[in-house]
Amino acid sequence: MANFRRFRPEDLNKLSKCNLDPFTETYDLGFYLQYYAKWPSLFQVAEDQHGNIIGYIMGKLESSPDVYRFSEHYLPWHAHITAVTVAPEARRLGIGRLLTEQLEMAADANDAWFVDLFVRVSNHKAIAFYKSMGYSVYRVVKDYYGEHSSDPTLSSEDAYDMRKPMKRDVKRQHVRDDGEKHEVNPSDVW
Ligand SMILES: CC(C)(COP(=O)(O)OP(=O)(O)OC[C@H]1O[C@@H](n2cnc3c(N)ncnc32)[C@H](O)[C@@H]1OP(=O)(O)O)[C@@H](O)C(=O)NCCC(=O)NCCS
């Protein structure tokens, strides 16, 4: 049985069950607190009966800076999943799905066009997870994890930028069927 609630700052020293996983990016402490301060409803944890954090999702709401408004890479108002992770012993129990559904509800409540995220192209399990939830590849960001990896021991790698349209995108304007064919450079991603 997992209990779902908002992240609290004292959870910071309880993230290691999740963060020891090599596909889970680990950030400076201030990075987590920034999400807590700015988008508290998009930072949710799952805890077990002993109070251990066995999963969390951390997200934000944003659009690209105005200076890029006329760029083909401009991103309109959307929610972004910065991290979602479930401790290995608690996987395939629906915890990741519930955390992600909570964030999608918040995205809809905030009138976001879509939810997006970046995932290593070799992270087949996470890609299967996202696809099962209705996400599809929007574009491939070449060598994204060369610049953006929080873990220098992990190899440089391309990212799939995956998206799921939210209720606002009735015409599915912000998703693609052939996203794997659209390659961009990290400098096109803000
Ligand atoms: C990806 C991750 C968050 C999924 O969490 P989870 O709680 O195990 O996922 P769920 O139990 O909610 O799975 C929902 C569905 O996703 C799919 N799925 C999940 N894990 C899968 C796997 N290992 N292989 C294939 N499909 C999988 C299945 O369709 C599953 O439904 P089912 O169990 O009824 O078949 C978890 O594996 C994880 O923490 N991975 C390491 C961190 C990571 O890669 N995060 C993403 C970085 S972008």
Automatic annotation (TrEMBL):
It comes from the Eukaryota. This is N-acetyltransferase domain-containing protein. Coiled coil: none annotated. InterPro entries: Acyl_CoA_acyltransferase (IPR016181), GNAT_dom (IPR000182), NatB_acetyltransferase_subunit (IPR051646). CDD domains: NAT_SF. Residues 2-167 form the N-acetyltransferase domain. Residues 175-190 have a biased composition (Basic and acidic residues). Residues 148-190 are annotated as: Disordered. GO terms for molecular function: protein-N-terminal amino-acid acetyltransferase activity. The keyword Transferase applies. Keywords: Acyltransferase, Transferase. SUPFAM superfamilies: Acyl-CoA N-acyltransferases (Nat) (SSF55729). PANTHER family: N-ALPHA-ACETYLTRANSFERASE 20 (PTHR45910). GO terms for cellular component: NatB complex.
